[in-house]
Design goal:
Residues 3-58 form the HTH deoR-type domain. InterPro entries: CBASS_pafABC_assoc_protein, DeoR_HTH, HTH_11, PafC-like, WH-like_DNA-bd_sf, WH_DNA-bd_sf, WYL_dom. The protein is α+β, with helices and mostly antiparallel strands. It folds into 3 domains: 3-60, Arc Repressor Mutant, subunit A; 73-231, no CATH class; 236-315, Alpha-Beta Plaits, CATH 3.30.70. The chain has 10 helices and 12 strands. It has helices at residues 3-16, 22-29, 33-45, 73-89, 92-106, 111-120, 139-151, 222-232, 278-286, 298-315, and strands at residues 50-53, 57-60, 124-129, 153-160, 167-181, 183-190, 195-200, 204-213, 236-243, 259-265, 268-275, 293-296. The strands form 3 sheets. Strands 3, 4, 5, 6, 7 and 8 form a 6-stranded mixed β-sheet that branches. A 4-stranded antiparallel β-sheet has the order 10-11-9-12, covered by helices on one side. Strands 1-2 form a two-stranded antiparallel ribbon. Strand 10 and strand 11 (268-275) form a beta hairpin.
Amino acid sequence: MNRIDRLTAILTHLQSKRTIRASELAARFEVSLRTIYRDVRSLEESGVPIIGEAGQGYSLVEGYRLPPIMFSREEALSMLVAEKLVEKSLGEESSKHFKEALIKIKAVLKTSEKDLLVEVQDTIKVLKSNPSQMMNKSSKAFQTILEAISEKKVLSTAYMTFDPELRSERELESIGMFQSYDQWYLMAFCRLRNDYRTFRLDRFSHLRLTEISYSTTKHPSLQSYLDKISGERKLHQIVLEVPDGSMKYLVNSKYNNGFVSEKKVGELTEMTFMNSSIEGFVRWIITLGDMVVVKRPAVLQNRLAELIEEIKERQG
């Protein structure tokens, strides 16, 4: 960050808080305290009314306001993602206040950024959100994919499939992203398979934006694609009983397996899942050993019994 950008950012920080310490600014911009002191002095000399209180920090004179802040394309897109997540993660009242605040922020965007948000807002969906989970390593791919969607540029990728684990090189025409529980997915037209595919963001080992453009008019919308796959995939309702002492082992992994709800039944917790793959689910359950009991469906109970017998035979 050059000095002009840093001075502007310091002004933004001063307006965002009542007071801010020089040490906070130094840590934020990864510069020395001496550099921050010089920057503040430069701002004062340019006419910005900054108050410095010993032991307290810096603040702007009450009533002083900066001109409208200019956001970059990346920052504008990040606001859109935050809006989608908050809508699912917060209660109705808090979500309402957040949206109202965001409208005020959007009001200072440049026309090009406003147009960009309108254009890409339907390419990002949050289906099921788990507020306790932070975005994992998929965040490394997130910004590159947002850029590909907004600029309609082909992505050159390296992707690791789940079963079997194979690495393949793919060129993708991005249609949109969606989140389900704690995983983000990309829906794209795969030029290798000549068909539409869904990719988990954390399974990309390489992502590069190419200069090859494509038209979205020939592709379905993200929502229509989601409606299509949800209709094609038969979802199984799965109910497990878990002793209280074993719940801690399912806290993180349950969201990767279609967790829907849970309720207390005496000293047990009854957990409900919706999952399209009996085979994938039973192989997760078997890693939990004696910590869970499958209540239904019967097809899962039977497959679990079969798998246990197969393991016994293989072990001799």
